[in-house]
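Exam review. A common question shows you a sequence with its structure tokens and asks you to describe the fold in words. Practice with the pair below. Do the first one on your own.
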Amino acid sequence: MIARQIAAEALGTALLLISVVGSGIMGESLAGGNTAIALLANAIATGCMLYAIITVLGPISGAHFNPAVTLAFLMRWEITPKLALAYVVAQVAGGILGVWITHLMFDLPILQLSTTARAGIGQWSAEAVAMFGLLFVIFGGLAARADSVPTLVALYITGAYWFTASTSFANPAVSVARSLTDTFAGILPSHAPGFVAVQLLTTLIAIPLLGWLFGRK
């Protein structure tokens, strides 16, 4: 059972990165320089994939696909530290593999480093908003109607691509993996740690607040 859970987390995160990076490459190549169209394609494809993988893999692993979400469940004592660590390793490895598979599909060099700068107070505050909002819809959805969580997450991330300055990474594994692609979705490797730090710090602050808001100690 544990092996299936870990495999589900790796597979789900790989598919998530395939959708993020692949739709970015395809959108940019077809948009003729129109970044708005490329971003729209990127957001829709990511939202669709999130709905699919959360629905299908949720019953196996809980469908975290995100070290910050795993940290949140650990803080709520709904996952053991040992399993949480295994999830995080699987998520990061799956995300990187997903990027490499995408490069292979589009006939690009498999090993890359991004050159896209994403740093500064605007980007970091955007990631705090994106991360808090993601946790809000996950745990709010679980408190109100658990079967709505796939839809809520998909809709939230699709929208957050547009209303956050960072285009809503909201995921440390995604931040690491996207530093390894010099495409539309990339982030400079030296800037990824700032995103990861903000995402994890936001999680540490958000979970007690959301526990109080939704009536859980």
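Now try the second one, then compare your answer with the model answer below.
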Amino acid sequence: MIAAIDVDAQKTFTPLCPDELPVAGGDEIADELNAQAAFAGLRVMTKDAHTPAAKWLCASRAEMGQPTGLPDADRTWVAHAMVGSYGFELLDGLPAEHEYDFCVWKGTSPELHPYGACFHDLRERRSTGLIEWLDSKGVRVVIVGGLATDYCVKTTVLQLLNAGKAWQVLLNRAACRAIAADTEAAALREMAQAGALLFDHAAAIGDYLRANGINSRA
């Protein structure tokens, strides 16, 4: 079984929301996310889902990145992905939430600002259920894309690889965008060193799957 994960493919992380956390080209990945999902029997959605009461909020970009002193929200961020806002929405061209097979909403509590899709907390003690669900479905290949490469995508990939399961994790670079070139390069190295397989686009993933006799429901 193959699963495809759309990590935080939300408008908040694109130029469509310039006052939130825009990532250059973040609004251009829907087609590649859909292309990678075409190889999968299961599709997962993750979304940042924040509250105006979040304790990690700061008023301006100049104040971002400061330590919060909170165990599960390490730094300050401007408001983004507020539930019900335009930025909270998925990118145009992606399925509606109810069309996904499994959904993870991250950071719903004022105390939390996780990055990866597998745990609600930075200490990775409180599971979102994603690892367990993938395992219960017999998933052997996980294809990952989303926003941003150097934060939530990287953390999700590493969490999947560290789960101790017998699945392969494939990263679709064309379905991702990064905040900065240097942190993207570092993130790609870290994921590859941890065991992720990196591909330039969904078509290359398709070639790999066919060459290895892997299909969506095998």
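Model answer, second protein: The longest helix spans residues 181-194. DSSP finds five helices and eight strands in the chain. Full marks require stating both points clearly.
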